Amino acid sequence: MKQPNQIRNIAIIAHVDHGKTTLVDAMLKQSRIFRENQQVAERVMDSNALERERGITILSKNTAIEYKGIKINIVDTPGHADFGGEVERVMNMVDGVLLLVDAVEGPMPQTRFVLRKALERGHKAIVVVNKIDRPNARPEEVVNETFDLFVDLGATDEQADFSVIYTSAIKGWAGTEPDRLAETLKPLFERIVADLPAPDVDPSGPTQLQATLMGYDEYKGKIVIGRLNSGTIRRNQNVLWMRADGTSQPLKVAQVFTHRGLNRIEVEEATAGDIIALTGLGDVGIGDTIADPDDPRPLPPIKVEEPTLRVTIGVNTSPFAGREGKYVTSRKLRERLYLEAARDVALRVSDTDSPDVFLVAGRGELHLGIMIENMRREGYEFQVSKPEVIMKRIDGQLYEPFETVEIEVTSEHQGAVVELLGQRKGRMQDMQIREDGMVFLQYLVPTRGLIGFRQQFLTATRGEGVMNTLFAGYEPYVGEIQTRNFGSLIAWESGVATTYGLHAAQDRGQLFIEPNTEVYEGMIVGQHIRETDLEVNVCKKKQLTNFRAAGSDDALRLEPPRKMSLDDAIEYLADDELLEVTPVAFRLRKRYLTKSERKRAQAVKKEG
Prior knowledge:
By secondary structure, the protein is an alpha+beta fold.
């Protein structure tokens, strides 16, 4: 067992894509965690398939290394604003942070968010200026900008007096001067041990641990991860589960694990200060306290910022329902959604008037999109509504969430982006022209205006624009926003799409499907060039006759259909549309499938 002064608990925080996971990789490799001949994947901490595909960290994960007899527990956190709930709760578990900043980009919107959370907890930081080997690196300016950020966020004198380490995480180099890097991370390890404090805990007190992260193992069941704040905990020990609502229940710890590298090592006993994992604790939720039955001392519950966006998720009601999914009933759907809410404190799930439909609220489109994609891959089949923002009424006035949007574009695309944001009620806060000719724009935009914006933004900038968003708070409602200028092309009968039918339909807009795709009445097969919806017969076949003109049988030319990702499909949805999600495919559809039902619904809406 390590004594508290032989332990350092640190979180690595940064804006998305500034190199957190790559740095953890290098730290693991240099601490001799892996065998010499062991094959190790790149970004080994991104264990989730979705994380590898998208190149982002979604779930916080912890690992541990040893340096000169000191155990360093490291928590790799997400960099995207939608997963801020992960960052907020991890701050309860650590005593210091490594703040990674890109040597070219400097502090970005999410840097501000994660640093604010660390400073609010009173944590000390080491600033790591990463990617120092990039051609346009500007280390001095970046350090000055980071210092200004510390001051803006109300850092204490001690917090603002931070150490700076320069690194190239991908090479595994570090140094205290930007132009003199050692070919190892030794300077970084030295700073961590010297500058970041050991955990302030009471080894002789009663057992006290807060459940901060959750894991799951097919054989061991639920795994509760947290820092042991006081006392010791051993295998088969009786403990008291203290819930946030004040109720409690006796439990017995089955196994105790500590971390070494990527592995959990089973131990007989763990002492205060270490980050440990426990099994056998049943339904313990995040924020609950595991305490000593003879001297129970609850810890304050973990508080995270409220969700800003919600969707409805319900049982699939399309004509293809039940054909492709493994779990299709409302009972299975409800179980899975409430399990997700227990694991993710930033997510809210509630029942609705209908037993087949559930309301799910999260931090943003990506937050909800990742959950939907994970469920799809697990075999669930369901339908999703268009995301809508969560309004608040303050002193009788309606308020809505706003986001700070930072954009980098070339000067030729600046006008198109300014026009798009103007249509969505965005207010310009700042504008700068960089030395390399790039234009930097900062806007305050209603969250409503950003639903479906990313696709239009990428089209307007030909894929060259960079956009980052961060929740800025609630402001008075700004009125109606037109976010979609086009209607949908709707299949008017069930059947199989033909080349002949699609060729006739493609003159009316952009298609989403290709020939031989099975469709049903009310399914969306494309985007109309006008604002209204249009029904098209994509299953129409050419009538055969005995007469042929020269060249009449030549193949009809079809434009390639627009291939949508799950995120694109969620962004595309209108108020009266749903997304049918199955393990095999996802299909856009109208909420009311037949023309008569849609007319009736429109009439009711007008009367209302």
